[in-house]
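User: I want to check something. If I give you two sequences, will you return the structure for each one separately, not as a complex?

Assistant: Yes, each is folded on its own. Here is the first sequence with its structure:
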Amino acid sequence: MIADIVLLPGDGIGPEITAQARLVLEASAAKHGHTFVMRELPMGGASIDAHGEPLTADTLNACRQADAVLLGAVGGPRWDAIDPAIRPERGLLALRKGMGVFANLRPCTIHPALAAACPLRPDLIAKPIDILVVRELTGDVYFGAHETAPDGQSASDVMVYTVAEIERVARVAFLLARGRGKRLCSVDKANVLAASRLWRETVTRLGAEYPDVELSHMYVDNAAMQLILKPAQFDVVVTGNLFGDILSDESAAIAGSLGMMPSASLGKGRAGLYEPIHGSAPDIAGRDLANPLGTILSAALLLRHSLGLEAEAAEIEAAVSGALNAGYRTGDIYSEGCQKVGCTEMGRRVIGALST
């Protein structure tokens, strides 16, 4: 297979973790006879520094034409004081919108080797935790109107959803649930928000088309509590942009570290945007301390969802498990008795496990 992959290292630890994911992709390609043509382009703060904007038209066009895009992380305090309209995070929102990716898949599993890193009591995770949060990605308050009164004494952010936006992400979630445990929980705040009432009505109506999937509904505040009290009850969770952002980070904390969590953002075609769910961690940037596993696992999702290389994806995931089972840990997941390694060394250990 020949595939065109755009790499957007971004800011902070982004270049370090993306470099390790690239090496893993290259190792997989060499092992299986694939050719991955990978191009690095500026994004976020790096693009602001180089071009005065967080996402240039040329970079967006390259991402649209690629088979897949792998992103590191964007943002940092050095850009906090600039015009909010051109901050690094605005480039990320524009990239998602421009690529037409509307369904963000965020898996949460607790690796057996990292059970001690889970903050929950052992009895709460006695049953296997395997949650997939499907977050709608291009609507909600992040893309609604934002206004601040001239006197600075009030501000508003508008939450907007259309039936079409809800339907397309719900269908993705129903199909994913059908291929897993056949259980889908839709999360909203329909007791308060009009947009959430439309969400619940739409998802309920679509549920009739998937009689083999057990559909339930939960208010977001209860869902946040249930993720802590009884996480094993969830299979696939579908929710809006804002609620999904919060709940997926909460589920990642259950797994022990944001550094372990990958994500895939998909649209109508096979091309997708893949990234770890953590931020740019500027406090440890350039110190070889970052955990590259979330990015490497995102690369595995890239192979699975955009390139259709299931065996290669599973092999990378097994290699990550192999490195963890051998006792190697970056600082964020370190525990006594393990061997602490840096970002580069962890990447080497995954490649070593991939080669065996």
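And separately, the second sequence with its own structure:
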Amino acid sequence: MRVLYAFIEEEKHQYLLEKYLTMNSNEFNIRISKFRRWQDTQLSLLGRILLKYGLNNYFDIHDFEIGRTPNYKPFLINKNLHFNISHAGNLVICCINEHPIGIDVEYINQRIDYEDLKFQMTANEFDKIQGSEDKLKAFFTYWTEKEAVIKAHGKGLFIPLTSFEVDHNQAIIENETFYLKEIFIDKEYQCCIATNQVILQKVIYVEQLNMNKL
């Protein structure tokens, strides 16, 4: 399993556009061209760049095409690999794996009131957060775990957050078990991966890509 991440940089924005826009579909380029902020454009583009870098350098895949399932989950057409991309704040992260994978990263916003999102939690989850020494950390742990599982499962918004719980780094959706692991990237971010294969003992290669490598 490969986890690649990078932080966006405004001074590299035009360079990235000129070098990498042609590798994407017209549909993708049109979509990101509608963003008003350069940050949003670069986050989306950089996710695809990380995917390309990972496939090229670690899986010897240089030509690939991205499709979408009926539930809108992106996948690699005719490749026995899975990927998932997430971004928050100034960080974008991409995971590539041999089995279905979900990854979620969130910026730890100190101003958020997690109680406003109580309706998205089960009673057990809310009580666990309330009983934690670091409630904000516990909330973002809960949130990234849930999002990672949903993304790994592949049905997205069709799976309500309150329809399952994470217990001892495992969750079950529709009789399928998913295994979770926290990935440390930066103290200002919370990140978690989920897959339907046991991952606690697996080696996970985490690499930061400097813009000078791209």
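Because they were folded independently, the notes below concern the second chain alone. The radius of gyration is 17 Å. The longest strand covers residues 82-88.
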